[in-house]
Amino acid sequence: MSELSVNHLLGIKYLKKDDIKLIFETADHFKEVINRPIKKVPSLRDITIANLFFENSTRTKLSFELAEKRLSADIINFSASQSSVKKGETLIDTVNNILSMKVDMVVMRHPNPGSCVFLSEHVNASIINAGDGAHEHPTQALLDTYSIRERLGEVRGKKVVIVGDVLHSRVALSNIFALQLLGAKVMVCGPKTLIPKYIDKLGVTVETDLKTALNWCDVANMLRVQNERMAISYFPSNREYTQQFGLNREILESLDKEITIMHPGPINRGVEITSDVADSDQAIILNQVENGVAIRMAVIYLLASKIKQ
């Protein structure tokens, strides 16, 4: 397979296994590029990319910008808080105004689930979903599964537990889709109030005891509690959450085996994970950040090569 089967990256659920394989192979190449003294390639000198962030973001936004610059693309950065959206302009008008400046690709983060799909049906540009509400975050799932492959050799047959606030997490849903597509077994673990009701329909196991989940898994992906998405309280206190679902050194050392620890960031140190775990050799959190640039370079490059045809 030499090209993606899709024209946009709207979610993992739209990808085939061969698409992910192609993205990983391309990312392998770009990972080698970003570790050279000169980290740039002229691949996308004739492509203009608009980064539209209608929600706050640090790591994802920086990672996309860096990926675009490494590929020599021209970039427009758009922040909704300083734009005409505040004056009531619609999403399609905003994007069409940007596209009239001859933009080829849009990277968008938006609080509403499905906004990227909606946009892809109404504008003539390649759309990359950088997170839509609590729905999907496809590039995060790609970099997470890529990081597991790098650490453990392959994803197939591996047992991965996603711990924490699954209900409000776009990372969790995209990870479940990607891991299952690549043949991994997936479990979710957290307070019952933070596990979605539909989750068993996705073919994942639910576990409410952290120690049981950790003894089962090869990889634990620790999610933060997304207080900003909670209109009500889903558990008594952060302290109680940490006592039941926080990962510390003591728990890690009590396991029968050594497991790999991941975190999509930002980390609430001392809540879902302690510093001595986050900074340990078992954690691949910084590898995830580095791989994020390579994966995003791969996605942008592969989608741009379809625009050029």
Q: Measured on Cα atoms, how large is the radius of gyration?
A: 19 Å
Whole-number count of domains:
2
Q: What overall form do the CA principal axes indicate?
A: globular
**Looking across the biggest beta sheet, what order are the strands in?**
7-6-5-8-9
Return the CATH topology of the largest domain: Rossmann fold
Return the structural class.
alpha/beta
CATH homology-level superfamily of the largest domain: Aspartate/ornithine carbamoyltransferase
Number of helices: 11
Note down, in words, how this protein is organized.
With 309 residues, this protein is α/β, with parallel strands linked by helices. The protein folds into two domains: 12-136 and 291-307, Rossmann fold; 138-288, Aspartate/ornithine carbamoyltransferase (Rossmann fold), CATH 3.40.50.1370. Helices cover 39% and strands 15% of the residues. It has eleven helices and nine strands. It has helices spanning 17-34, 59-70, 91-99, 115-122, 138-152, 170-181, 210-216, 238-245, 249-254, 275-278, 285-307; strands spanning 48-53, 74-79, 105-110, 126-132, 159-163, 185-189, 205-207, 219-222, 260-262. A five-stranded parallel beta sheet has the order 7-6-5-8-9. Strands 2-1-3-4 form a four-stranded parallel beta sheet, with helices on both faces. The radius of gyration is 19 Å and the shape is globular. 44% of the residues are buried. The model is unreliable at 228-232 (pLDDT under 50).
